[in-house]
Amino acid sequence: MRTESDSERDAEGGLAIADPASTAGNSANTARDDHAMAPAARTSPDYQNARGSGGLRNAVSSRFRLPGEDDPSPRSGRLLGLCTWAAAMAFLGLIPGGRLAFSLALNLDLPPWYAPVSLTLGVLGVAAVAAGFFAVHRHRLPLYLFTAATLLLLTNLVLVYTAL
């Protein structure tokens, strides 16, 4: 996969597009490049723009976004640590999930509030882990989100052993 260099960018930072008429001997199809037609990668807006219209949307989209071509890849150790943490939470999450499924399948007596609370805690935890992976390029945000997911999982585990 070819990446563009700074010499292929114009003054505004967008990709420079080759003019098919100015390329001698090349047809219009070979003069254009797929990368030249692609929009430039999004950069995080500065705080001045975040306070204007759509401030919340700009703030969220700058923190939770898929990496572009210009973004560096995350460090292997950081990614390995987050994956290990997520796998540990997934295996521990089988305890409340399995216990809930087992109780519902066998029609065991459950408090009426237990199933909705347990499911809500589980869904919020999974959403926090997914958001942590989306924010892998941020410095501390994935750690905060994974910590929140861990606390939700621990709350769900406490509910399993106290309510059932």
Question: Keywords for this structure?
Answer:
single chain; elongated; mainly alpha
Spell out the blueprint of helices and strands.
Elements (H helix, E strand, L loop, with lengths): L27 H4 L2 H4 L9 H5 L3 H9 L12 H30 L8 H21 L6 H23 L1
Helix pairs in contact: 5-6, 5-7, 6-7
Question: What share of the residues lie within helices?
Answer: 55-70%
Q: Biggest sheet, in brief? A: none
Count of separate DSSP helical elements: 7
How much of the sequence is in beta strands?
Answer: under 5%
Number of strands: 0
Radius of gyration: 24 Å
Reading the helices and strands in chain order gives HHHHHHH
How would you state the average pLDDT, rounded? 77
- Backbone shape: elongated
Given helix and strand content, the structural type is mainly alpha
Residue runs with pLDDT of under 50 for 5 or more positions:
29-42, 44-50
Whole-Å distance between the termini?
Answer: 55 Å
Give structural notes.
With 164 residues, the protein is mostly helical. 59% of the residues lie in helices and 0% in strands. The protein contains seven helices and no strands. It has helices at 28-31, 34-37, 47-51, 55-63, 76-105, 114-134, 141-163. The protein is elongated. Mean pLDDT is 77; it is low at 29-42 and 44-50.
